[in-house]
Write a structure and sequence with these properties.
60s Ribosomal Protein L30, Chain: A, 20% strand, six-stranded parallel sheet, Alpha/beta knot, four-stranded mixed sheet
Length: 251
């Protein structure tokens, strides 16, 4: 059985509420004795999940970080080495909703801080899932999980073998796929963002890969009016997702 670590009260609570069967063990700091920890212990006890109290050194080693809020959970990974959701299942469920689906595809993001921040924005702006390639992307490490602030437990994360094939599947399902690109006439101001939609954001240095770019239905730029020519990928993700929800909120 392969295991992964999740940490932070919000992330661990969310996993217990959504997928308790995948939680193997929970470790908490011996130095924390507060109401929040008491609630977590009560929830774990009700699910018959073991909690171990350990010192700070042991918890830091488990989390591979000292920024864990005093709690770390070990969870089961899937056969492909991820803790993510099944893409086909998530897509089918999203298409049945009363609101148009919204997906975020990340094309080989390398910085785990950026990856976590993108996932956090996806959660904040109501994306149905974040889709990552199995190879060439930053892993969901302790750093990425911390940057996501628990969003990995509330927004499905799907790992796919081929991002281009994933785009084709979305298109066949009626989802319009937009690639965020710097130099193109289409912008957030003149592009329809109200229907079933998927945003594709590219690598920090190279942007979208050629095949990914060519497979998108359209390339869309974020209008820039200042001296800065581009945005960090996590900021660009937030802007694109916010613009989508803003367009959908108009009467």
């Amino acid at each position: 059985m392969k295991l992964a670590r999740i940490m932070g009260f919000h992330a661990v609570n969310a996993r217990l509420e959504r997928r308790p069967e995948t939680v193997v063990e929970i470790y908490v700091s011996t130095s924390r004795q507060d109401e929040r920890l008491a609630r977590l212990k009560a929830l774990a006890d009700s699910l018959d999940i073991e909690i171990q109290a350990v010192d700070a050194g042991r918890l830091n080693a488990l989390a591979q970080s000292d920024e864990h809020q005093g709690v770390v959970a070990l969870v089961e990974m899937s056969a492909d080495g991820t803790t993510g959701a099944d893409f086909d299942t998530v897509l089918a469920r999203s298409l049945k909703k009363s609101v148009p689906p919204l997906f975020l595809l990340l094309d080989q993001i390398q910085d785990p801080h950026n990856l976590g921040a993108c996932i956090r924005s996806a959660d904040a702006f109501g994306a149905d899932a974040v889709i990552l390639p199995k190879h060439g992307s930053a892993p969901l490490s302790a750093v990425a999980l911390k940057a996501a602030s628990g969003a990995t437990e509330t927004t499905p994360i799907c790992h796919v073998s081929n991002l281009v094939q994933c785009i084709e599947t979305l298109q066949q399902a009626g989802v319009w796929v937009l690639g965020a690109e710097m130099e193109t006439e289409a912008t957030l101001f003149n592009t329809k963002l109200t229907g079933p939609l998927a945003w594709v954001l590219g690598n920090e240095g190279k942007g979208l890969r050629r095949l990914t770019r060519e497979r998108c239905d359209a390339l869309v730029a974020i209008p820039m009016v200042g001296a800065v020519e581009s945005l960090n990928v996590s900021v660009a993700t937030a802007v694109c997702l916010y613009a989508t929800q803003a367009a959908r909120a108009k009467p």
